[in-house]
Design goal:
about 70 residues; mainly beta; four-stranded antiparallel beta sheet; about 0% helix
């Protein structure tokens, strides 16, 4: 099962994720370590990846991630 969370970024967002991650730029302009986030293109990151999203004008991304159902 997978969850999707919208995230508005004003200047910079950085985090290390312990699970695989899928990022899609929904609005605005942003980049991950110098690579432009092309709108509606999927960017996949492996578990343990450090992800830093930078923007000068604001960017909304959708982050997809696995949901743990073993509770």
């Amino acid at each position: 099962q997978e969850g999707v969370a919208p995230l508005f970024i004003h200047l910079m967002y950085t985090r290390q994720f312990s699970f695989p991650l899928l990022i899609v730029a929904a609005q605005g302009q942003g980049e991950v370590f110098g690579t432009e986030l092309v709108r509606n293109k999927k960017f996949t990151f492996k578990a343990g990846s450090n992800v830093a999203i930078f923007t000068w004008h604001g960017c909304t991304v959708e982050i997809s991630f696995p949901i743990c159902t073993d509770l």
